[in-house]
Amino acid sequence: MLHKYTISLTCALLISQITYSQQMVMGPNIGQSPVLWLNFIAPEGIKTTIYPGNNRQFSLPEKQMVGMRPGYVYRFKMNHIPGNPEAELYPTLEVRGSLQMPKVANPLNFPAPIKVNKLEIESALKGNLITKVIYLEDSEKAESVTTTIENPIESYVPADSNLVQDARNRGRIMVIFRMGGKTISEQELQANSIPGTVQLEGEKYLPAPKFPPIIPCESFAFFDPKLGPRFSKAELIYDGGDQIPKAGYDNQGTLQGVNPEDTIAQYTDTSGKKRIARSNRVILSAPRFAILAQETVWANVNTVQTFNEQKATITDSQYRTNTPSLQARAMNHLNSFKGDLRLKGTENTVGLGEIHRLEILRAQTLDLIVRESINSESTMSARDKQKVAFKRQTENVKKFSSSLGLRENDGIEGTSVVARIQNGAEVIKANVQTREIVITEDEACEIETDKPLSLLKLADKPTAKVGEIVTFTLRYTNLGSKPMSDIAVTDSLATRLEYVQSSAVSDRDAVFTIQKNESGSLVLHWEITGKLMPKEYGIIRFQARVR
Question: Where are the domains of the chain?
Answer without folding.
Answer: 2-228+288-298, 242-278+355-402+415-546
